[in-house]
Amino acid sequence: MARKLAKTSSSNIPPEIIEIILSKLLSVKSLLRFKAVSKSWNTIISYPLFIQNHLDCSNNSPNNNLFLRRYTNSTDRGFPLVKLERGKIHAGGISVENIPNGYNVILCECNDVLLLTDRCSEKKYALWNPSTRRARHLATRYELNGDYVVDHGICYDKITGDFKVVFIFATKYAIYSCNNYSWTKKDLGTNCRNIGFTGSGIFVDGATYWILGVESKNISGTQLVYFDSTTDKLKVLRMPEQLYDDKIYFLSCNMASLRGSLCLYSYNYRDNSVHIWIKEKGIDFGDNRTNWKEFVTVGYLRLRYLWMTPLCFVENKVVIQEKSIRFVSTEKTVEEFLAVDVYRGRFIPYRDSLYFPAGVKTIRA
């Protein structure tokens, strides 16, 4: 009787009210359980707009400063989990059973869908969502054999709902469509190379970006390259004008994602300052529409290494990582985090997400 009454009461609640209530829940585990309540709840939680709104809430949550280290420890297969807050670093771990068997390296991420590989062979790849524990192996077959991979990336096409995995080679690039279970290989029309500590592709605001060395008849040097999912083409986006000025002594440019926006940053070794630019929202098609705003200049920051990267915001401060040293930086001050061994290496953002490629050929980790 009580169960029947609860069912009747739930059916009297308007669907839009149920959607609002469910959208307030950030826990993916809870939402997955609620999909079994009824067909209507399953439809609401599976709807693409609900999934995107849920991810937006996760990104805007004050507790979203979580990161996964790209590599597993030598002692186990768990990716170390790191949380940054108010000058402290908290280190933990993702349980071993969550990770697809045989994978121990995170190459890149898109909407919390991670591209994994094996550091020993790097000939097998899988997509994995650590929140839902869903995984899917990619059939590479002959398409990637014999070619040196310059870089990787994942791009989500919101129009078709397709996750596209992009492999960039020296003169070609390959696209794996999760909707079609197929590879497409295309010519670059130029030569590309990896230029060091730039990491893999970053998905921001509908496009995936890389910093690459490009050599062709029309263009040469370090370039900001992005993948346009609507045309499946790689294009070059003009960087801030200061980075083209030979009189300013910037070291090689790098990129990161801060609060859902693409940022470029570079170190001026003459005055020991880090300059960070933020790109306006939207995918640009042409130099004249590219708008960069200098977000912050962090002075008196002498780097011990040439590699560094902004990670996230903690309150109103930008967290900068330099090897094993972590800084909270504002325009005028540099404060060092309370030291905790969080393992040297680069990090991937981690937040709760319901995203995963559609299709029936999905396995559970």
Q: Could you characterize what this model shows?
A:
The chain is mainly β and 365 residues long. The protein contains 5 helices and 26 strands. Helix 2 packs across helix 4. The N terminus and C terminus are likely disordered.
Task: Name the overall outline.
Answer: globular
- Helix vs. strand class: mainly beta
Strand order of the largest sheet: 4-5-6-7-26
Helical content stands at: 10-25%
> What is the strand tally?
26
Q: What gap, in angstroms, lies between the N and C termini?
A: 39 Å
Protein name: F-box domain-containing protein
InterPro entries: F-box-assoc_dom_typ1, F-box-assoc_interact_dom, F-box-like_dom_sf, F-box_dom, SCF_F-box_component
Pfam families: F-box-like, FBA_1
Write the layout of secondary structure elements.
Blueprint: H1 2-11, H2 15-23, H3 28-34, H4 39-46, H5 48-60, E1 66-69, E2 80-85, E3 88-93, E4 105-110, E5 113-117, E6 125-129, E7 134-138, E8 151-157, E9 162-168, E10 172-177, E11 182-187, E12 191-193, E13 202-204, E14 207-215, E15 220-228, E16 233-237, E17 254-258, E18 261-268, E19 273-279, E20 292-298, E21 309-314, E22 317-322, E23 325-329, E24 334-336, E25 347-349, E26 363-364
Antiparallel strand pairs: 1-2, 1-25, 2-3, 4-5, 5-6, 6-7, 7-26, 8-9, 9-10, 10-11, 12-14, 13-14, 14-15, 15-16, 17-18, 18-19, 19-20, 21-22, 22-23, 23-24
Helix pairs in contact: 2-4
